[in-house]
Structure formats: structure tokens, C-alpha cells
Amino acid sequence: MIDRRQVLRFRVQAQQLDRTTGTLDDTAVLDIGVQDTGPDGAGWALAVRGADPADRDDLVLLWTVRGAPHYYRRADLGRVAAAVAPFSDADAGKRIYDAAKPLKAAGIANLAALDEVAARMREIVTEPTVKGDVSGRLAALMPEPYLRFCRPCDATHLFEMPFRLAAIRAGIELAPGTSPPVLRRARGLRAAATPGDRLDLIRAYLRLLGPATPKHVADYLDAPVKDVKARWPQDTVEVTVDGEKRWLLAADEPALASAAARGVRLLAPFDLFLQAKDRTTLVPDEARAKQLWPVLGRPGAVLVDGELAGVWRPRKAGRRFTLSVEPWGRMSATVRQGVTEQAERLAAYRGAEPAGVDWTD
């Protein structure tokens, strides 16, 4: 029987949240992709794992899992393209959400639709182009089943998820730091038939967010459980976590049994540690879970010795950066000092002047 504390300690080690230095080459979360959402996105996720967030020439930014922007190693680009592709036509339909219905009505297969969008997108993006311009030109080229009327814009657009998920099929990357996004031809893309074990997303989830069930992985990918089960790794072992059957890569079983975690980290709202689909394992208390994962405006989380111990929000006035922290219980003076040090580090990452921590307990 494995308890939730062992699971969290295992994930801290697997995701390297316990290290202070590292390189992009040996940063494990880049195997599954580092989501770049919000001001403390991928750069801060790399920084808290000891990698240099400023060294991004070797990284590539792509729309991939759940249509969100993720960073990967540029050297892995071809294998990433293979890894993030839908497993089947049914999987593609699930990933593109409401866009699948008009395509089905028109007799257009989901994968064929993604390929058609990708072909037109590649024709358009011959030089760096703002997303809105690409969208407008696509809307003029694509027939009705691909299009929807957008009330906020009072215009007709391509459905959003096919647009995003077709980009990597077109060999298109995102220019970092652009808002609205600028699309450009991906540098260094070479075809790869298979992702390889390291970049296989099911294996990566088990390695970084395990032990897990097929449904956990399917929910993370927005894929059908059936497709995930069909590709479930053979080298897994079954474990029981608080009464639930889950699976882990066999090679990681010793690490699960012996994992320890020490230290304080400030996790950004979309850090991989918080993306696990077994939220009750991360935060058993329902009220605290609602606080950490509201519908809008997620806070960051305070990680202490492998346990989520509170939430934080930034406040910036001019160059002064203050962190507002709400602990979920008593924090020792040592832990509070650790939070303060992390807040100073976050301020430096943002190029701001640290102005301390406001405790709201």
C-alpha cells in the first residue's frame, strides 16, 4: 500500500524540484513539455528545477497538449511532433472539441481535417506572421465545416483547436515572448517515425506524474481512455495508492519506495506538479482544492518538503514585487524564511525589486 505522501515525494524527485542546478539537456520535464502560461510560466518552471530560463536558444515553443503552448528541446523537435500527434481519428475528434461535429456532418475525417489545415497554414506562414493574420487568411481559404462565427470578434474564424493542433503538423512554431502570438516556420524540424521511449507521453506521464491510471493520462492528453489503454506500456507494475489501483514504470518502483523530499519551492499556477489529474492526491481538502484550482485566476502553490502547504499571488507596484502568501496551517520560521528567499528569487526572475512577503494567516 502506497500513501499519497510517498506519491508526492516521488514526483518531487522525478520532476527534479529538489535540485538547485541542472541543464536543459537533463531537465526531465522537457520530455513531456513545459507549459508556458502566465508571467511565471515555462521560464520559472525551469528555474525552480535548477535550469537557466534565459538559455532558450536550444528550446522551441509549440502548441501541443490541450492546445496549450509548451517548451521542448529543439533537438527533440521531430520526435516531439510524433509524440503529440493524436493516436487515432477518434482521439483527434476529442482533442478538437466542438470542431469535430461539423466535420463529421460534412463527411470529413478529423485527422484529414488537421492535415488540410496544416497544408494551408504552411502555405501562408512563409515568414513570421501574427496569429490573427494567419487566422484571417485561413478563414478565406477553408470551407464552411472548418469555420465558426465568433461573436466577440464579430467575425468568422477557423475553430481554435484545429488551428492550434495543426500548427505542429505544418512545421510551425511560436516566437517566444510574442503577444499576440507570432507564428513562424520551425527551425530544425526533421521527420521522425516514432517519439522514442523518453518522449512517449504516456511513459512520460507515468515517469513524472505516476503512479497513475489510464484515465489520469487520458485526461491530461484530452485523449480517449481506449486509445491510452491500447498503448499502455508493457513494463509497468501495479501499485495501490490509498486503495486505488494505479500503475508505475517498473524501473521507477525502487524510487517510489525510497523517495524523500526537502525544501521550499514556489510553483507557478500551471507548473507540471499541479497538472496531475489526481487532484485529490495533491490536495485532499476540498475547500483548499477549490482555492488552488478556481475556474478563473489560479494562484501559485507553496511546496514544502513535498507537500502543498499554501497558495501565493504576486503584487507588483512599479519595480517593487511583493508576494502575498496564505499558508494552509502553521509554517515554521525556517519555512517562512525559505518562502521569503524564493520570493526574492522570483522577483529577480521578473526583473523586479523584492519587497517582501505579506502573510495572510
Account of the protein in words:
This protein has helices at 4-14, 42-47, 77-83, 89-95, 100-105, 110-124, 131-141, 160-169, 201-209, 214-221, 225-230, 253-258, 279-282, 286-292, 333-349, and strands spanning 34-35, 59-63, 69-73, 129-130, 147-150, 155-158, 172-174, 182-185, 236-241, 244-249, 264-267, 300-304, 307-317, 320-327, 353-359. With 361 residues, the protein is an alpha+beta fold. Among the domains are: 21-185, no CATH class; 283-359, no CATH class. The strands form 5 sheets. The protein has a 5-stranded mixed β-sheet with strand order 11-12-13-14-15. A 3-stranded antiparallel β-sheet has the order 1-3-2. Strands 4-8-7 form a 3-stranded antiparallel β-sheet. A hairpin with a 5-residue loop joins strand 2 and strand 3. The two termini are 35 Å apart.
Mean pLDDT: 95
- Gross geometry: globular
Task: Specify Rg, calculated over alpha carbons.
Answer: 21 Å
Question: Order of strands across the biggest sheet?
Answer: 11-12-13-14-15
Q: Count of DSSP E strands?
A: 15
Strand content: 15-25%
Low-confidence stretches: none
Task: Report the sheet with the most strands, covering strand number, pairing sense and barrel closure.
Answer: 5 strands, mixed
Q: Which structural class best describes the helix and strand composition?
A: alpha+beta
* Count of alpha and pi helical runs: 15
Question: Could you state the order of secondary-structure elements as H and E?
Answer: HEHEEHHHHEHEEHEEHHHEEHEHHEEEHE
- Assign a percent range to the helix content: 25-40%
Distance separating the two termini = 35 Å
